[in-house]
Amino acid sequence: MQNYDENDSVAAGFARHDEDTTDLTLVTSGQIEAHLKNAGAEDRAWLTRQNFNARKGDLAWLADGSALVGWDGKDDLAALGHLPMRLPEGCYKFTHSITNLQAIGWGLGAYQFDRYKDATRTPARLLLAGENDLVEVMNKVCATLLTRDLINTPSQDMAPSHLEAEATALAERFGAQIDVTTGEELLDRECGAIHAVGRAAADQPRLIDLTWGDAKHPKITVIGKGVTFDSGGLNIKPGASMRQMKKDMGGAAIAMGLSYLIMAQNLPIRLRMLLPAAENAIAGNAFRPGDILHTHKGLTVEIDNTDAEGRLLLCDALSIACEDSPELIIDYATLTGAARVAVGTEIAAMFCKDPELAAAVSAAANVTDDPVWPLPLHDDYTYMLSSKVADLVNSATSGFAGASTAALFLKHFVNDDVPWLHFDVMAFNTRARPARPEGGEAMALRAVYQYLEQRYGDT
Ligand code: BES
Ligand code: MN
Ligand code: ZN
């Protein structure tokens, strides 16, 4: 079980002691009449003056110093997500019960990335009532904050060696084992694809391999694409597309956040986290279009485009993951622009061979307000990946179904008998929403955790 101190709680937007708290009450538009009736004449006048209609985002102060918060009646992150930055600094509590999901929304709305610039203010803090599970809420919030910080940190301070340091710190915190294969050692381990993608960068590519938990528990392997900067390689990206590519390790950051949550909650599984980490850089020794790579699985891959590098990192990690026959492999990757065209930036595209598993994860996504949407793993499109000189090309010549062809590429490296979930994610909020500030974001993290807890949790 996690032990959080005062500082952790404050950073996550929560208060631990009953300091001077201000009362808050959620009010829907349907309840507003009743509230007006109960209120004194002065309060009624103030509510009108403040134009309080109990719409989502409305806030009104009453004469006794408490406040009403407009609410659309939904149990989601947005219900309280705007409050930590909207309310004056201080400590608050609700006059009624709130759900753990709403509390998580508060915590996520308190986030600020302050590594390079002081935070503008301290978020308003929430004192949780006894019926909310503070540790579980904190674990879920802190998992997401970890992911966001990793993504928001620029590539100069989040190179493969920094990702390794972060994974090592995570392993130490929870008593996990960690093993890292770096640089030329990747060739000894026959990870020719990871090595090729990362070898042109000053900070060497590596495969980070963390294991935790009782070996008798079901084996779950979480993989994340850890491209710490994606210049595109020799197929260099235009400036505007390269601009956000510090976030191309978003998959690795989500895998770390999910691993944090699994370990903090002590979920009875045997966890393995595999992070292939590399910077897709340009130098004289960069891999080139036309090169043919030797993957860990033994399949050869002709490079059509050096910018389709994520699937190359993942293919070696996936075949290594299959070697110890896990019950489930979950991978996260900022893999294709095509997935963003298909479902936009705010939904995680999900690929899965098993419709029942996909349905269970979709249901978990709904209850956690962490949206995912299935896209097809349509085997007939595999022809687009055929090469005249190797077993596969890394990028289809046509961009049609680009997220599906990327997923089909990965499927070649997953054994048929191993259940597998693949998430093609943005890992970044392009606009600020309540509980979802602009910047790095942990997409499909709480959804997958919810599924794992339902399936493997002992309560
Ligand atoms: N990291 C990018 C994909 C990406 C871009 C994700 C923007 C989210 C936002 C990936 O490595 C990439 O460059 N993919 C190419 C693949 C293509 C060359 C087949 C793409 O999507 O254009
Ligand atoms: Mn790329
Ligand atoms: Zn990439």
Please give a structural write-up.
The mean pLDDT is 96. The protein contains 17 helices and 20 strands. The protein folds into 2 domains: 127 residues, Leucine Aminopeptidase, subunit E, domain 1 (3-Layer(aba) Sandwich), CATH 3.40.220; 317 residues, Zn peptidases (Aminopeptidase, 3-Layer(aba) Sandwich), CATH 3.40.630.10. It is an alpha/beta fold and 459 residues long. The chain starts with 5 loop residues before the first helix and ends with a helix. The strands form 4 sheets. Strands 7, 8, 9, 10, 11, 14, 15, 16 and 18 form a 9-stranded mixed beta sheet that branches. Strands 1-6-5-2-4-3 form a 6-stranded mixed beta sheet, sandwiched between helices. Strands 12-13-17 form a 3-stranded mixed beta sheet. It is elongated. The structure holds ligand BES, manganese (II) ion and zinc ion. The site of ligand BES has 15 residues, from helix 14.
- CATH topology name of the largest domain, in short, is Aminopeptidase
Number of helices: 17
Mean pLDDT: 96
Supply the CATH superfamily name of the largest domain: Zn peptidases
**Tally of separate domains:** 2
Write down the overall geometry: elongated
Provide the CATH architecture of the largest domain.
3-Layer(aba) Sandwich
Q: In percent, how much strand structure appears in the residues?
A: 15-25%
In total, the number of strands is 20
* Sheet with the most strands, sense and barrel status: 9 strands, mixed
**Helix fraction?**
25-40%
Going by helix content, strand content and strand pairing, the class is alpha/beta
Rg of Cα set: 23 Å
What ranges have pLDDT less than 50 throughout 5 or more consecutive residues?
none
CATH class of the largest domain: Alpha Beta
Each distinct ligand:
ligand BES, manganese (II) ion, zinc ion
Distance between the termini: 15 Å
